[in-house]
Design a protein that fits this description.
The chain is an alpha/beta fold and 334 residues long. Helices cover 32% and strands 22% of the residues. The chain has helices at residues 19-25, 30-37, 51-66, 90-98, 115-128, 152-157, 215-224, 226-237, 254-263, 275-278, 285-295; strands spanning 3-11, 16-18, 41-43, 75-79, 105-108, 134-141, 161-169, 180-183, 191-195, 209-213, 246-249, 304-311, 315-322. The strands form four sheets. A five-stranded mixed beta sheet has the order 1-7-6-4-5, with helices on both faces.
Length: 334
Amino acid sequence: MSVGIRSIGVCVPENEVTNAHLVERFDTTDAWMRERLGIFSRRIAGSDEFTSDLALGALEDACKRAGVEPAGIDLLICCTSTPDHMIPAVAALILRKAQIQGVPGFDVNAGGCAGGLFALDVGHKYMQSGQYDRVAVVVADTVAQLNDPDDRTQHAIFGDGAACYLLERCSDSPGIGRTLLGTDPARYYTAFVERLESEGQLNRFSGPNVTRMDGKGVKDFALSVVPDFVDEVVEQAGVGLDDVRLIVTHQANPGLVRQLIGLLGQPSDKAVIVADKYGNTSGSSVVIALAEAERTGRLKPGDAVLLLGFGAGMSYGGTVVHWCGSENFPQREW
């Protein structure tokens, strides 16, 4: 059974934080952020804007682009590490806000930046079970809310955002290929969220949460582990890296993305960059970048695209997707 990505929805906060805004708050410069990171702007959720709000916007956008109603989905999966509440699942709140009844929903926590691939694999497998005809996989995080208040680099890097894959069965196309996943637990503390003591006590379920990240460690992981992993992904997909139209990776920062593409021996025009204007939006970043490629005409039906996600864990995932057009999706009554 072939499963394709029918459409992708995207939702980012309206609030834009430019480099100029950060220069007013921190001892940094626009030149440093542009040259070292390649970022000039990012979107940050407001005080009344939550993960579920961005997730809902992404779901609605994906459905609108596919010409279907949100109530026409059969299953909703939300991948997030920044839920509105510990319990219930954010998926349940998305369904509530969308006024959808009779549709099951659950959350996946892939630990952050690799979520765009882990969640796609989960949705793909549910589709392959044959039990569902249309699965919405929303990847959403308000990760910038976890920035250390005094860490200028985190504020320069991270942004909030959400994206949604709408999955359906497809014909005359391989669609989504087998996804390879990996985790290196020895690098667990390379990037993690620490719960701080509150009023002198540490409560495992409450208190302030702050991102801790070894930037050099993340870079070393991406440049030392990911290239060999890419070889495995394309080999099992039965394609050559030169045959892949685009390489859409997690948007850690534009500089690192470009380094990785170069290390793979591929031309720079195969890279898709969105972190320059949105920042690192964690798991949704690769999905937002994929949407950008499709909407700007860089990705067309029949093209093969390599998707890569990597981040906290340290976890990583990759797959080759053959992009489908509307003609690849059988017409159904909903």
